[in-house]
Amino acid sequence: MSSYFIINHHHHQDQQKAARGESAAGMKNEMEAVFGGAGKTAPGVTVAMAVNPASLGFIGIGNMAQALLTAFLKKGLVDPQLAIASAPSDRNLDKIRPLGVKTTHNNNEVVSSSDLVFLCVKPHLLGPVLADLQPLQDGHSPLFVSVVTGVCLEDLEEMLGSVVENPRVVRSMPNTPSTVGLGCCLYVRGTHTTEADAEATNSLLSSVGMSAEIPEYQMDAACGLAGSGPAYIYAAIEALADGGVKMGLPRQLAQTLAAQTVKGAASMVLETGKHPGQLKDEVCSPSGTTIAAMHTLEKHGFRNCLISAVEASALRAKELGAKK
């Protein structure tokens, strides 16, 4: 089984001391008090508490993995001395060495020394990478969290079955804004995962944005909306900026205004709790400029384009996932 720390987010120093073994006995007693078999949370655990892995590993350390690791360390969710990452070359490893984490070219070293392992390789490389892993010894059974696009839980569990019996697997999908701490991170629990595994996953992923558990059948739809969605918005920002330039604004100002307008509108939806349609109506004055613009968007199928884009991405994700 994996080791987890139960910490309060306001006291990261306590977690880091425990990670270095300075209060192992106390932590063990706290673990036994909190978890009552199969990772269930005992009554009385407050929402301020979070579950985090004692040691953390990454197989593959590209842009997304670097963003995740940096956020975990910055927020004190894991001790850098107890984090390790592997990659086939030094190109990406050199980027994370200043963080104080261990690096290696040996994936087996990552798996054998970590309580939670992020799988962050390209989809076509996942099979060969997992096939090269040696069976784990001495009852060591880390939680595997996959961020590999299009690989379902059933396939992940099958591939990892040669590494450990009844592998504990979580399938996750952080999107690219996670690199600036504003991501949408969805995750799905596997057959053998526990409540503690889910809490650890949520604690880590929520450090780079919002995090939510969903059933696996919703993952393709989530890919179409949150996974591919940033590209739709980038295209919208670019088009809005082009419109500003066409009407006389300097390019840099137009781009800044477009991006800030999107950011502000998104914040209005999230912070007010109002329906987007209501917020839109509040901007549209009778016979005004905005309602005239909205009519133009409707004539050109603006909403239909976005709905169709989400549908196309989701269907493509389903198609890719069906390929073995």
What's the quick description here?
The strands form 2 sheets. Strands 5-4-3-6-7-8-9-10 form an 8-stranded mixed sheet, sandwiched between helices.
Walkthrough of the structure:
The chain is an alpha/beta fold. Helix content is 50%, strand content 15%. It has 14 helices and 10 strands. The chain has helices spanning 12-19, 24-34, 63-74, 90-96, 107-113, 123-131, 153-160, 195-205, 219-227, 229-246, 251-272, 276-283, 289-299, 302-322; strands at 4-8, 49-53, 56-59, 83-86, 102-104, 116-119, 143-146, 168-174, 183-189, 209-213. The strands form 2 sheets. An 8-stranded mixed β-sheet has the order 5-4-3-6-7-8-9-10, with helices on both faces. Helix 8 links the parallel strand 9 (183-189) and strand 10 (209-213). It is elongated. The chain starts with a strand and ends with a helix. The model is unreliable at 6-49 (pLDDT under 50).
